[in-house]
Structure formats: C-alpha cells, structure tokens
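Exercise 7.
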Amino acid sequence: MNVVLPGTKCSSLDLPVLQARAVECCPQHVELWLAFARLETYEAARKILNKARQQVPTDASIWITAAKLEEAHGNAAMVDKIIDRSIKSLTANSVVIDREAWLKVRRTASSSSSSLYSGYNPSLNRLPALRGYL
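Solution. The predicted structure, written as tokens, is:
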C-alpha cells in the first residue's frame, strides 16, 4: 500500500487514485464522493455519483450535484429524471424533503457565480420537477 505522508508532494495524476481509495475506506462520507466526482470527466463523474447514491441513499446533495452536472452538460431531460428519482428515492428512504432547504439550494444555485462543473452557472429555478416541492 502506498501512503502519502504530510509534507510530501503528489501529482495531479495521483488525486483520482487517492480519492478512489478515500471513498473505498469511507463510503458514507458524502464530501469525499463529491470531491472525487469533481476530479473526473463527465462520464466518470456520472458513474461516481451513481455509486455515491447507492452508498448514501439519504443524502440530497448527491442528487443535486448529479442534476447540476447534467444541466452543465445541456441534458435538461436528464435533470428532470434525476430530480424525479431523487424525490422518490429520498421519500422511500424516509428522508423528509425540507421545503426551506430546497429553497436555499435553489437560491444559492440561482445567485452563484461559480459552478461545480466547467464554470457553468446552473439554475435550479428552471427545474420543473422541484417546483411542486418548493
């Protein structure tokens, strides 16, 4: 096993390997999954977020990140599917969909000047599937 010691340097090529190992060791840590997805290509990020949803089915931020990723790549139809599936999945896992929390996400995405992906500013305001819950 390779170990990166504090104060040592690693190349950017090592980061995805380190992130993969991190989510393997801590599969319930949502921020690790999201950071791992940000390091990867679009297709790889989709797969990572799918695995993250399987590991942590009660966390809405994974679903929101997946929707933002699809929106950043112009896949509006997929955004609607993800939001519909998220509502079903979260409800099935006894997660209460908090109206105020969703509104906060919506406001943050609408006013944000930066995005998780490609400098695109996603706007959850145009996600019709969420409107009924907000």
